[in-house]
Design a protein that fits this description.
single chain; alpha+beta; four-stranded antiparallel β-sheet; four-stranded mixed β-sheet; 8 strands
Length: 171
């Protein structure tokens, strides 16, 4: 199934950034080891718009700033209905597999690590999530984004099928 990427313009958005992971990376040169930092950052307005980015620099703060700028270039729109997602979804990226499922009001975000940062940045308040396989934060963030891109609300389904909204629910 092909998914359409829903790009979002960055003008007039109040984006909050969350640091998912930061690593010290080493480059071995003739003169010795050179240390630098790699940061994965997730930005979102907590109202259905989210993006992630990777920043690399010789200082931590510069790496985070570069990650935020990169994340603003990859914003997507996610359907959030009554503070949860419209349906359950499974997605995979590399060795990381994620499963997200809607939850009733008051449940909270039951997700760990990188998935929690992404889901909170989207603005989902009630969701059950499980990650299987690799716990690599890079792949977990990308797998979570793949799952969020696959989500469709009832209006989108009705539009794609060319039928009315009540026909989607009543068959």
């Amino acid at each position: 199934m092909s998914t359409s990427i829903r790009k979002v313009k960055t003008t007039d958005l109040e984006l909050k950034d969350r640091l998912v992971s930061i690593q010290r990376v080493t480059k071995v040169t003739k003169g010795g080891r050179t240390f630098s930092f790699s940061a994965i950052v997730v930005v979102g307005n907590e109202n259905g718009i989210v993006g992630y980015g990777l920043g690399k620099a010789s200082e931590v703060t510069t790496a985070i700033a570069k990650g935020v700028e990169d994340a603003k270039k990859s914003l997507i729109k996610v359907p959030v209905i009554n503070s949860t997602i419209p349906h359950e979804q499974y997605a995979k990226y590399g060795g990381a597999s994620v499963f997200i499922k809607p939850a009733s009001s008051g449940t909270g975000v039951k997700a760990g690590g990188a998935m929690r940062a992404v889901l909170e940045s989207v603005g989902v308040k009630d969701v059950l999530a499980k990650s299987k396989g690799s716990s690599n934060p890079h792949n977990l963030v990308k797998a979570t984004f793949n799952a969020l891109l696959e989500l469709r609300d009832a209006y989108t389904v009705a539009n794609q099928r060319g039928v009315s909204l009540d026909k989607v629910f009543n068959g």
